[in-house]
Amino acid sequence: MSLALYVLDVPEFQPVVRAAEAAGLTTQHVGDYVELRTHEPEAVLRRDGAVIRAAVWHAALTGGLDGRIVSFTSDTLHLAKETG
Amino acid sequence: MATASPSARPRAGAPTLRVNGVDHLAYVTWKPRATVEFYTQALGMPLVHAITANGWVTEDYPDFVHFFFDAGAGNRIAFFYYFGLPEESAPSDLMHRSRHVAFHVDTELELHAWREWLKASGIRVTRPLAHELIESIYFDDPNGIQLEITRPLRAMSDIDARDAELTVRALADVAESPRPSVESLWRRKAELIRKSTEGAGL
C-alpha cells in the first residue's frame, strides 16, 4: 500500500495540493477528490509557500488519509506509510 | 467497524416536509438590562415580543419572562429570565466557543463595518478569521454567549454535501470504536472514498 491523501477539489484546499506536489506526490482526480500519492515511505508537506490560513491547513487531511501521521504542526505535515 | 451507515439525507417519501429557517434560538439570561441594551443598541435587533408567566408546562416551572429580538430574515434570538433561579457557573472555554450563534452578512465590507462598529461600542471583537467557506469575527454578549458575524467566501455546493456525507459516515463508524481519533476517521474516510469511486466505475 502506498501513502495517499485525498483533498476535496474546492478552491480553499488547492494550496494543500500544491504543497503535496512540491513534496513529490503525484496527483490524480478521483471523484470529488484529488488523490495525492507517493510510493516513498514518507512525505513531508510544508505550509511555507502555500498561501493557506492556519485554520484550513489544520483541516488538510479532511478528505482522508491512507497512511499515518508522524507529526502535524502549523508548519509541516509529516506522513508515513502504515506499518503492520 | 460498524457496518450500518447513518442516513445523511432526508428520507425519501417526505420530500415536502422541510423546515423554513430558524424561528428562534433561546437562551437563559441573568442580566436582562444588559441583554436588552446589547441586542437592541449594539446589534440593532428590535425587541419584538415578550411573554411573562407564573409557571409553565410543569408545577415546579419557575416564573419567567421570555423576550425576543428580531435578527433579520425572519429569525429571532430569545432569552428567558427566570425569577429566583440561581445563576449557573460559566461553561468551560471549549464549550463557550463551541456553543455559539453565527449571524450572516453578505459582504466583506459589511463584516469590516460590523467589526469597527462593535469596537467603537466598546465590545472586544476578534480580527476576521477565514475558515473553509466563511470569514468571521467573534465576540461575546453580556451573558457570555459567543456570537459570530460571518460572510461567505464561496457558495456551499453539492460537492460539500457529498463530502460531508462521507465524513459523517466515517465519524459514525469510528466514534463507536474503542479509541476514536481524527486520524482513524481520516483513514476510514479514505476507504469510503475508494469504495464510492469504485462503485461509480471510476
TrEMBL record, chain A:
Superkingdom field: Bacteria
Protein name per Swiss-Prot or TrEMBL: Uncharacterized protein
Organism: Streptomyces spectabilis
TrEMBL record, chain B:
Keyword Transcription regulation included in the entry's annotation: no
Keyword Lyase: yes
Key words, A-Z: Dioxygenase, Lyase, Oxidoreductase
Ranges of residues in domain VOC: 21-152
Single annotated GO MF: lyase activity
Recorded superkingdom: Bacteria
Entry-linked PROSITE patterns: VOC (PS51819)
Protein name per the record: Catechol 2,3-dioxygenase-like lactoylglutathione lyase family enzyme
Species: Streptomyces spectabilis
Lineage per the UniProt record: Bacteria, Bacillati, Actinomycetota, Actinomycetes, Kitasatosporales
